[in-house]
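Q: what does this look like with uridine-5'-diphosphate-xylopyranose bound?
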Amino acid sequence: MNVCVLGTGYVGLVTGACLAEIGHHVVCMDDDAGKIEVLLRGEMPIYEPHLEGIVRRTRAAGRLHFGTDVAEAVRDAAVIFICVHTPPLPDGEADLTYVEMAARRIAEHASRSALITEKSTVPVQTGAWIEKTLAIYSRRPGVEFDVASNPEFTREGMAVEDFLHPDRIVVGVGSARAEQILRELYAPIVEGRFRCPIHADCRQDRAVPFLVTDIRSAEMIKHASNSFLALKISFANALADVCELAGGDILQVTKGVGLDRRIGRAFLNAGIGFGGSCFPKDVKAFVKIAEKSGYDFALLREVDRINERRREMVLEKLKRALWILRGKRIGLLGLAFKPNTDDVREAPALAIARRLLEEGAEVRGYDPQAAGKARQALPELTVCADPYEAALQAEAVVLCTEWGEFTGLDWPRVKAQMVRPLILDGRNALDREKLTAMGFEYIGIGR
Ligand code: UDX
C-alpha cells in the first residue's frame, strides 16, 4: 500500500519505518528540514533500538522515503497517518493546531481518495473535527476521505518491538471501507507474515488481537490506557511512602500484590516518578477533557499530584542525610526519563537537578545516551563523560534512571571518588546488601 506519514517525530518515524519493514511503500514528511536532512544522510534524530537498521534497509529497498513537500507526500497515498505533535497548552489541554493544519493540507493536496488516520494522542472528538476540516477544505471533486483513529501504544526504547509485536491493534472507524483498509495494512503483523528484524528465531504463532471500535472509543482507549498505567505507578509510589512511614518493603509488597493476575506486577515500580513525553502530558490532558465534558476526574488529578511530589521527596531525603545542600556536590546517574532512550522530556532527573541547583548545590550528571539532550535542556548542569566523573568529590550520588550498566559499575571505584559514600537509589535498582557491605550508606525508596 502507499502510505504517507505526516510528522516524523518518535511516533511518525517508528510508524513509517515499521510499515515499510512489513512491505508497504511509505513517505515520511516533516516541516523540519533539518530533521529530514539528518534522515536523508542516514542518521537517526532519535536513539531507538533497531530503528536505524530498519530505516537503512527499507530505504535501500526503495520502500521508505523522506521529504518536506507535503503536496508530493500526500498526493498518491491510500492511507495518511497524522503523527504531528500535540504539545500541552499552559492549562494542560492539548494544542491541536498542528493536527488541524495537517488535515487542511491533506484536503488541499490529496489527489485521490484516502483514509486519514490519527495516531497522535488527541482528545476524543478530534476525529470528528478532522472530518469537518477535510470537508471544508477539500478542493477536488471525486476525492473522498475516510477518517480513523489508530492509537499507538509503543514505549520509547521498545518502540520497534511494540509496533511489530503489539498486545493489540485498535482501530476506530466510521465505515466498513476504513476498517478494510486498516485490516489490509496491518495484516502482516496480525497474521505474523513478516520476517522479524529483531529476533532471528522469532516464531509469530500468536495472532494479534485486532479490535475495531467507533472512532471516539478508540480515542478513549488511548487516554484510558496511559492514564491507567500512570495510576499504577502513582499507586506504587504512594504505597512506598506508606511503607516508609508504617513499615514494610515496597519491593516485597509489590511482588506480593503483583502476583495476583488481576493486578499484575508491571508498572508497579516505585521510584522518583514517571516522566517522558506521554504520561505527564496525557494525564493532565485527560483531566482537562473530562473537566470540559463536565466530569471532575479527581482520581487522575491525584495521580499527577503524587507524581509531581516525587521530586521533592528526593530533595527531602537528601536534606535529611546531608543537612545543608548549598555548596555540596551531588552526582546524578541517568538523565533520560527512563533507560534505553536519549529522551529527556519531563525527565524526573532533570527536574531533580533543577531543584538541587535552586538549593545552591553543584550538580554533575551522567547518562549513556542523553548527554547531548540533557546539556541542551539544562545548561547549568555539568554533564560528565562517565559515571565515575559524576561521582567525583560528590557528597551523594542519586540513581535517577536504571540503565543496565549502572548495576555493573565498579562500585569500589565510585566510592573512592566520593567525599561521602551515600547512594540514593531513586529506582530501587541497585543491590542494597552488596552496597552496604562495601561501606556505602544506602537510601532506597519505600524500603
Ligand atoms: C508510554 C506508554 O507505556 C506507551 O504505551 C505509550 O504509547 C507512550 O507512553 P513511554 O513514555 O515510552 O511509553 O515510557 P514507559 O516505559 O511507559 O515509562 C514512562 C515513565 O514511567 C518512565 O519515566 C518510567 O521510568 C516510569 N515508570 C514506569 C515508573 O516509574 N515505574 C514503573 O513501574 C514503570
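The chain has a mean pLDDT of 95. The pocket of uridine-5'-diphosphate-xylopyranose is lined by residues 152-156, 226, 229, 233, 267-269, 271, 274-276, 278-279, 337-338 (CB under 6 Å).
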